[in-house]
Amino acid sequence: MADIQVKELTFGYAESKPVLQGISLSFDGRSTAIIGQNGAGKTTFVKLLKGLLKPTAGDVLIDGQNTREATVASLAGRIGMVFQNPNDQIFKNKVLDEVMFGPLNIGMSEGEAKEHAEAALALVGLCGLEQENPYDLSLSERKMVAIASILAMDTGVVIFDEPTIAQDWRGRRTIGSIIRGLRERGKLVIAILHDMDFVAEYFERTVVFAKGRVLLDGGTREVFAKEECLRAAYLEPPHVTQLCKSLGYNEVFLTAEDFVSHVKGNGFTV
């Protein structure tokens, strides 16, 4: 797993208007969700991690290497990023070629790249579509193609930008399973999300961005317990958390399973 250290990071597309200001974070092995309103600086932040942008001030260190001194190509084998819109990522006219492109680009042999690509397509549920044109697929399937193309690269860090967009219940469960699987394999998973229920179910750590700064950072249960801070960032806790609060419970429950386990543990039958 790559070591990422962010030190006093500031960035602005225009010098007079910083998008991010003085952000310092270190990432451990926990799956980490980055949440906040549109315009809070989330996508800009992960682009800086990926090396697609360079800091105005401060530093981003990947395994001790400053991204100021690294090319995007040199970081590609360590950090994979799934864009929010798969149409911004896909450019090949066959699914298999699309998913093989990343592995080939970081030096895998054709045989190894094909093996990784087929395994990734199986993980996202797209077996049998290898020869299809991605643009003949639905938006949700194209999102899965984009995810597979990054999984096939087997990077130490995987960044997802809004992974649940256009996904139904089955797609959400598939992506959640992938995130847990990556975590179990020692990968660092970072995701930008507006879906608080998904955050609650699949992420161990949550970082709240507001107006270009880190407002909250901690375990997901701890973060969702801070209602006033969430309101200041124009965010709401997960639906189960809100429901249990309205029922008079002081504990913070993140999922229905969480609540049921608590009730059973206190001698009630569900």
From TrEMBL:
Task: List the InterPro entries hit by this protein, alphabetically.
Answer: AAA+_ATPase, ABC_transporter-like_ATP-bd, ABC_transpr_CbiO/EcfA_su, ECF_ABC_transporter_ATP-bd, P-loop_NTPase
Asked if Secreted is a keyword of the record, the answer is: no
Q: State the Gene Ontology terms under molecular function.
A: ATP binding; ATP hydrolysis activity; ATPase-coupled transmembrane transporter activity
> Does this entry carry the keyword ATP-binding?
yes
Q: Where in the cell is it found?
A: Cell membrane
Alphabetized PROSITE patterns for the sequence: ABC_TRANSPORTER_2 (PS50893)
Q: Name one GO cellular component term.
A: ATP-binding cassette (ABC) transporter complex
Q: Which UniProt keywords apply?
A: ATP-binding, Cell membrane, Membrane, Nucleotide-binding, Translocase, Transport
Span of domain ABC transporter: 4-236
Q: Which family does it belong to?
A: Belongs to the ABC transporter superfamily.
This protein is called Energy-coupling factor transport system ATP-binding protein
Source organism per entry reads Harryflintia acetispora
